[in-house]
Amino acid sequence: MPRAIWPMMLLSMIWGGSYYFIKVLLGDFGPWTIVFLRCALGVAVITAYMVATRKPFRFKAMPWGAVAVMALVNTCIPWAIIGFSETRIASGMASVLNATTPFWSILTGMAFFGAVSHRFQWIGMGSALAGLVVLLGLDSSALASGDAWGYVGMIAASYFYGLGSQLSNRLLRTLSTYQVTFGTLFFSMIGSGVMAFSFEKIPYSRLIEPTNLSVLAGLGILGSGVAYLLFYWIVSKGGPARATMVTYLLPAFSLVWGFALLEEAIRWSMAAGLALILAGVFLAGRKKPERSRPKPLSLPKDGGSASMEATP
Known about the structure:
Radius of gyration: 22 Å
Oligomer: single chain
Shape: globular
Number of domains: 1
Order of helices and strands: HHHHHHHHHHHHHH
Distance between the termini: 27 Å
Largest sheet: none
Low-confidence stretches: 305-312
Strand content: under 5%
Number of strands: 0
Mean pLDDT: 81
């Protein structure tokens, strides 16, 4: 699993800017419209990639019902809830609350999917949570600045992410990363499109605004197409609970983007918090050590006395 830390960091860099992008787009578009637009761009990216590299779609073998459910749970619904929540709380606070996703993934896996957790996962989550507190210096004023429904929405979105990661892990046993990514974004585009065109007013003239075009490119091409390929690859290699640990890194990289684009100051707590988070991700990603089992005793063929020692 340590090898997957670098893809997780790359994914965190991409998704770390998503909360800012969503916040910008909410000035012109509704939550469902934003989900529809980013999914449509994501579908275009994964389709072009699969055609160019000749990856098989295998439509006839696709379990469409299961993929549709997973898409709604893991992408369409939580993305819309995040948009709703960011109309009520700051984008930075949204990324912090989203960091509860690994907790929900582990609990959901244990309750419904027969998953077994180990002490490294819990120690790692504790270290990562402590890193978040140090990183952001959360205080009562930060919590008081938001709306209660915004907090509830982000917790709900995090739960959907945790459940969706478990569902995607089951699908990845029979489908490729490319198939799952395509199916997820395709059904999310359909579901969000129905909601957007039914209940939201879409200002088409605002789509060609330079700022909106650049933000949509970052959110749709990188944050949906490329990012979901990375996410499902991590799920297939390290499991759903470990893949969701990427959410602990999102606030850290949100601050990195703030430093790079907005010239915000880097505090000492940023380095200390990031170190704790990385340590937590590493610990949670370690495999549970297997206990060596003694070999069964065997009787000698010559009928003599059996040896009472087992080879370790």
